[in-house]
TrEMBL record:
Gene3D superfamilies: Arylamine N-acetyltransferase, Cysteine proteinases
Record InterPro entries: Arylamine_N-AcTrfase, Papain-like_cys_pep_sf
Designated name of the protein: Arylamine N-acetyltransferase
Signal sequence extent: none
Homology family: Belongs to the arylamine N-acetyltransferase family.
Database matches in PANTHER family: ARYLAMINE N-ACETYLTRANSFERASE 4-RELATED, N-HYDROXYARYLAMINE O-ACETYLTRANSFERASE
Amino acid sequence: MDATAYLARIGGAADDSLEALMARHLETVPFENLSVHQRDHVPLEDPALVEKIVDRRRGGFCYELNGAFAWLLGELGWEVTRCSARVATGDGFSFPGDHMALIVRRDGRQILVDVGFGRFAVGPLDLDSGEEQPDRAGVFTVRGAPDGELDVLWDGKAQYRLDPRERSLADFVPLAWWHRTSPTSPFGQGLLASRLTPTSRVTLSGSQFIETPDDGERTERELSVDEQLATYRETFGIALDAVPPVLHPAD
């Protein structure tokens, strides 16, 4: 495992700021669930995660992306904590461990870093601040919640409830297995690849190519199978021989 190779993968440098490393990761490593549909179950272990992202030049979902990024930040000297989060559902929050996020200690403060939530904050968020925090994606705020947890809000809407206590990668193994195999997991319902660009977010959801500019209107376009394969390759850096069949297609 080589931090230099990981930095080359994202176009970063060892002395880059946390903000720069996070932005480069979001722009180069896609949030994607193709491995779920390919039945490629990557172990939640540092070597396997780094090998997938660096050597195989793939992306992943939260446990994989934040798991690998935590390893890189640790190699670069940052103090990193892996944490459990419950995703907002509209009428409450999902189960513990439904999401994994990272807390980095910087200048005595707790900083939220998340490169595995898809469309979300582009920069780090100060968990010790109750003030509004402007970000390229919008305005984020952190609010106290019961039992020492923290609610992270985006433009006033809750995104997830964070438990700041430290977890290990092994703690998330059952949840990762559930997300990869359960018919009710959202990751098994359709194919998804998404990443940030310097001016927008681009997403391939099934056969729909979606572009959401920072300033401008969202556009959608239906792609043929050949166009999907070309988009995976050229936009997300994922070379496929064929579009994987959906693991749990909707009835």
